[in-house]
Specification:
Layout (H helix, E strand, L loop, with lengths): L4 H14 L16 E5 L2 E5 L3 E7 L5 E7 L14 H25 L8 H30 L7 H23 L3 H21 L6 H5 L9 H16 L7 H27 L4 H5 L1 H4 L2 H4 L5 H15 L1 H14 L15 E2 L1
Parallel strand pairs: 4-5
Antiparallel strand pairs: 1-2, 2-3, 3-4
Length: 342
């Protein structure tokens, strides 16, 4: 995979923050809470207690790592409805950027970590892109287009939401043209197929997982479209005003919108009636944010889920096999490509 390091840093953090990594939401399983995210040449999975990250290195080896999830999400007000949605998103963004940074280093065969300055610049640029593309631009365009539709505040607010949705879909379509992002989307498809196989009680083998759908009801893509719909409702309560006021209000209200959207997705994912049909239109967007994975990608996603569910057993098995093959390494040795446990 021949990609410049600086492009990986900017492009994938933009994808993660602006598009929410269409692949970037924790999905709650009907059996054991699991979720996932595609990274560079790899997959990040969330089990009941641990994260599991697996990346395919340039030599074809699978590099594995596991660490404990955030305990603060299980305590106090962070468990309350609405608040838990924004808290989970904030935690996912933090873990997602960590996983992207690690995967970039392992996939490129580089040992140097991203510097603090590089990370700050990348995040700042990404946040400015989010503010400009998905907040300021829809507000500005709705101001100029609304007079042609009657100019009422309700019409202007609805038009703003439709523009925001169109900008988001266009953004996903454009970045999907890039070869490296298409590979991320293929790993996103592998992540979905693996979770679908697990939730249905199927066998976690590449052959069995390949037959599963790459569309998942609780994907982050669906979540982001629900965010757009909920924002139309929430923003309608805060009246009209100058451009700066409405743009600022939308930024400040974003935690509330995300929290409410989380509850909508949470309820819809458990319903086989109203919930199933409510999010059905959003599922079609996953045909843009996922691609059919190859067998090597499915192997990565399966290994990542196994580690997230039982990291000690999975990583012990990896290292014991390495020793049998003559690849002697310390148990959970992070220096090797074989696996580590924190």
């Amino acid at each position: 995979m021949n990609v410049k390091r600086e492009n990986i840093s900017i492009n994938n953090l933009l994808l993660t923050i602006a598009a929410g990594i269409a692949s970037l939401w924790i999905e709650e399983s009907k059996r054991i809470p699991v979720g996932g995210q595609a990274v560079i040449e790899g997959v990040l999975m969330k089990g009941p207690e641990h994260w599991g990250l697996v990346v395919r290195e340039p030599d074809g080896c699978l590099w594995s790592k596991s660490w404990l999830g955030s305990e603060w999400l299980k305590r106090g007000a962070w468990k309350w409805p609405v608040i838990r949605g924004f808290a989970s998103m904030a935690d996912m963004m933090k873990i997602g950027m960590k996983a992207l940074s690690i995967s970039a280093e392992r996939a490129l065969g580089e040992e140097d970590n991203f510097s603090a300055a590089e990370l700050v610049i990348s995040v700042t640029v990404a946040l400015l892109m989010v503010a400009g593309l998905f907040i300021a631009l829809p507000v500005w365009l709705s101001d100029h287009l609304a007079p042609g539709f009657g100019a009422s505040y309700a019409v202007k607010n609805l038009l703003e939401g439709l523009i925001r949705c169109s900008v988001f879909v266009a953004y996903i379509a454009v970045i999907g043209v890039w070869k490296d992002i298409r590979r991320v989307f293929s790993y996103h498809g592998a992540e979905h197929k693996t979770i679908n196989a697990y939730e249905s009680g199927g066998k976690l083998s590449p052959e069995a997982v390949a037959s599963c759908s790459r569309i998942h009801r609780r994907c982050g893509t669906s979540f982001l479209l629900v965010v757009v719909a909920v924002s139309i409702f929430v923003f309608s309560f805060f009246g009209d005003g100058p451009l700066w006021y409405r743009a600022a209000a939308r930024v400040l209200l974003l935690p509330l919108v995300i929290g409410l959207s989380y509850e909508v997705i949470r309820g819809a994912s458990k319903s086989e009636t109203w919930g199933k049909y409510l999010i059905m239109p959003a599922l079609s967007l996953q045909y843009l944010t996922t691609r059919e994975p190859d067998v090597s990608m499915l192997e990565v996603a399966i290994r990542s889920l196994e580690i997230a569910l039982d990291p000690s057993a999975a990583l012990t098995g990896i290292n014991e096999k390495d020793e049998q093959d003559g690849k002697t390494a310390g148990k959970f040795d992070e220096v090797t490509e074989h696996g580590s446990l924190e």
